[in-house]
Amino acid sequence: MINELLFMNGYGAYVLSAFSFTLLSFGALYLVTKIQYVKEQNKFVAKFGSLNTEKAKLAKSQRINKEILANVTNN
Amino acid sequence: MFKLFQPNKIFQITSKAPKYVLFLFVVVLSVGLTEALILSPEDYKQSDAVRIMYVHVPAAWISLGIFSSITFLSISGFIFKNKNLFLISKSLAPSGFVFNIIALVTGSIWGKPTWGTWWAWDARITSMLILALFYAMYLISWRIYEKEEKIFKISTIVTILGIINIPIIKYSVDWWNTLHQPASINYLIKKFNSLINAFSFINNDCGICTFFIANFLNEI
Predict the structure, then answer these.
(1) Could you give the angle at which helices B83-115 and A12-48 cross, rounded to 10 degrees?
(2) Structural domain harbouring A32
(3) What is the pLDDT of residues B57-70, one digit of tens each?
(4) Which residue of chain B comes nearest to A30, CA vs CA?
(5) CB neighbours of B181 closer than 8 A, spacing ≥ 6?
(6) Would you state the pLDDT for residue B192?
(7) Interval B102-112 mean pLDDT
(8) Angle at the Cα of B112 (from B180 to B190), degrees rounded to 5?
(9) Which residues contact A31 (CB under 8 A, 6 or more apart)?
């Protein structure tokens, strides 16, 4: 059965390469997105992670940060 | 109406949903792969090469759907001055581009044993290649400009020009005498070999969709 799955009446190379390319593309897209996400996360932490009280107050007063933090306080 | 697109609402979903969507993706993809590679019978003409259709067709559908969504969101963002709609469409673009490339490459792989050639300047194939260029232009427009307003304008213009290509891709097989076969859905309804064909298409479509959603949630 495995031989049938690999050979596929002579079309095995075409079919398996098409599926492999698809799955590899999925993996690559997921990795690229994950790397970008981690980069942005690190940027955010670098900017807001070690704020003193004054800077933290200023950051919290910005509208976009208020909207994001509304989710955190609700949880 | 646009309260749904506020950052706190979006983050409520994107912080919790990815792991469930990923789980669903793995389940649906496993079922789809089993049906496509093992359970589906071979075609009477193409033999086992028909299995490539189970990734080629859904990938093509998704890439067309994503580009249409990007256009709709960009125009809506322009009309209603909602920046979040632009950010959502920016997040959709890489997935759409990758699915377009998958459709082109798997179509090329399918073409070699069936048509005897890796590439043909057929109406549908050429218009899909043009769509890939529009995706690339859209992605580049987000990188080369610095001012946000300029990015929104240029990217919206790219999508409006690109949307003209979508009905050309869809109807090219009807309007012109092309090498590419007619639409798969009509083909399935008229010449229905087995339920497995339909389920394989649907399952692979669902698998691809759930992957795209999981990735999109990460991106946004």
Answers:
(1) 160
(2) 2-74
(3) 889 989 999 999 99
(4) B215
(5) B173, B187
(6) 44
(7) 94
(8) 40
(9) none
Size of interface A-B (CB pairs under 8 A): 83
CA angle A69, B18, A50 (to 5 degrees): 35
C-alpha B80/C-alpha B86 separation (Å) is: 11
* Helical packing angle, B53-80 and B83-115, nearest 10°: 160
- Interface with chain B: mutation pick from A11, A21, A67, highest number of B CBs within 10 Å: A11
Sequence ranges of the domains in chain B: 55-194
pLDDT of residue B220: 55
Is the ipTM reported for this complex over the cut 0.85? no
> Could you tell me if B38 and A5 are in contact, meaning their C-beta atoms sit under 8 angstroms apart?
yes
Interface test with B, best of A19, A36, A62 (most B CBs within 10 A): A19
Beta-bridged to residue B47, according to DSSP, are B43
Length, in residues, of chain A: 75
By the 10 Å C-beta count (0-12 exposed, 13-18 middle, 19+ buried), B107 is classed as buried
Number of domains, chain A = 1
Query: Span A42-51, mean pLDDT?
Result: 76
Quick one: tokens of B24?
Answer: 């669903």
